[in-house]
Write a structure and sequence with these properties.
Elements lengths: L7 H7 L26 H8 L14 H14 L3 E5 L2 H12 L5 E5 L4 H10 L6 E5 L4 H7 L4 E7 L11 H10 L3 E5 L4 H4 L9 E5 L13 E5 L1 H14 L5 H11 L2 H20 L4 E5 L9 H7 L6 E6 L3 H10 L4 E2 L9 E3 L11 H7 L5 E5 L5 H12 L1
Parallel strand pairs: 2-3, 2-4, 4-5, 5-6, 10-11
Antiparallel strand pairs: 1-7, 6-7, 8-9, 9-12, 11-12
Helix pairs in contact: 3-10, 4-9, 13-15
Bound molecules: pyridoxal-5'-phosphate.
Length: about 400
């Protein structure tokens, strides 16, 4: 049985790790292979029929996946985890593993643009209808429930408006109607929030973001019960959205410093939110760690920290947004978030560009909204850069 550790950092450094049995290498090798050899023909059949365990083909599994999966499951306090090629592979697999033609889904309106596209554009082709609601209000969720509702999908805090949904209250409501709750925990991360402990049935991640943390890997993860992850494995082997050995290795390496990085993201995110909330050029700051955030009390109840992503509404029009974004020097104008370096983007220009106006309005995605992913640089440099860009 794997040794269990008390602390998050010890778990991330040691969970699943052991020196390579053939060479003694302390760092695990990258199993850069598509296929695995069998000593006999019979042994291949033994594996296929579940009498032995092991690897046969990298789309079905690879030792590098297993190591990253054991860490993600430990982080979320889950029975099991599955790594996939991207956050979108995780969300699409997590949903299709639960849904059947004719099912109805309720989604929080303010979600990542790619997830919105999955629910709004793609799933209807397969007979799955999604209602988008402002799930910060439990009444809206309750009103949207139909007899055919099977899944409630939440992001909390959400992308890009940092709205906070009451995961426990929504899970209680859902379970009373036999509905499953899937939470995208990319923004909060398991460092700050554990949706399964709050009653959610499954969690998805864009591992591309904080889990890996270095803007050099696309990855996704699903966590939940062993039974549910087995169904996700069944679906993903057919869809083919597997990760690969080297990206799993990098993800596993990145996760070793996840705890240290998140502590710094939390500190820097709070400092930037406070600085901008007093700035005369800023209309509003959306960050759950601010006492002015409409769900601050709820955020304090279900989160232990508030992360490094915030969004701001700039005073003025498009010219002022352009001017601000064009003047930053330490920040990089780029989509994505959750990495060591600070990134900045205007959601309507890229990530939420394809979200139709009525859904943008529901999600609070205005034209003067700027999303900031605060990195782990020295906070005085971050504040100085934002200050000079706003001058
Ligand atoms: C909250 C959230 N979920 C999911 C995704 C999709 O992840 P990926 O880009 O790894 O497919 C993103 C991407 O930005 C995201 O922000």
């Amino acid at each position: 049985m794997a040794k269990r550790f008390r602390g998050l950092n010890s778990t991330l450094i040691h969970c699943g790790e052991r020196p390579d049995p053939t060479t003694g290498a302390v760092v695990p090798p990258i199993y850069q292979t598509t296929t695995f050899a069998f000593p006999t023909n019979e042994s291949m059949l033994d594996l296929m029929e579940g009498r032995t365990s092991g690897y046969i083909y990298t789309r079905y599994g690879n030792p590098n996946y297993a190591l990253a999966e054991s860490k993600i499951a430990a982080l979320e306090g889950a029975q099991s985890a599955l790594v996939l090629a991207s956050g979108m592979a995780a969300t699409s697999t997590a949903i299709t593993a639960l849904a059947r033609t004719g099912d109805h889904i309720i989604s929080h309106a303010d979600i990542y643009g790619g997830s919105f596209g999955l629910f709004h554009d793609l799933l209807p082709r397969f007979g799955l209808e999604t209602s988008f609601v402002d799930a910060t209000n439990l009444h809206n969720v309750e009103q949207a429930i139909r007899t055919s509702t099977k899944i409630i999908f939440l992001e909390s805090p959400s992308n890009p408006s940092l709205r906070v949904c009451d995961i426990r209250a929504i899970a209680d409501l859902a379970h009373a109607h036999g509905i499953r709750v899937v939470v995208d925990n990319t923004f909060a991360t398991p460092y700050n929030q554990k949706p399964l402990a709050l009653g959610a049935d499954a969690v998805v991640h864009s591992g591309t973001k904080y889990l890996n943390g270095h803007s050099d890997v696309m990855a996704g993860a699903i966590v939940g019960t062993q039974e549910y992850i087995d169904e996700c494995i069944n679906v993903f082997r057919k869809l083919g959205g597997n990760l690969n050995a080297i990206d799993s290795w990098l993800l596993n390496r990145g996760m070793k410093t996840f705890g240290l990085r998140m502590a710094r993201h939390n500190e820097n995110g709070q400092a930037v939110a406070e600085f901008l909330s007093h700035h005369p050029k800023i209309e509003r700051v959306h960050y759950p760690g601010l006492s002015t955030h409409p769900q601050h009390e709820l955020a304090k109840k279900q989160m232990t920290g508030f992360g490094g992503v915030l969004s701001i509404e700039l005073k003025g029009g498009q010219k002022d947004v352009d001017r601000f974004l064009n003047r930053v020097e330490l920040f990089t104008r780029a989509v994505s978030l959750g990495s060591v370096e600070s990134l900045i983007t205007q959601p309507v220009a890229a990530v939420h560009h394809n979200v139709p106006p009525q859904y943008r309005e529901l999600g609070g995605i205005t034209a003067n909204l700027v999303r900031i992913s605060v990195g782990i640089e020295d906070v005085e440099d971050i504040l100085e850069d934002l200050g000079q860009a706003l001058e």
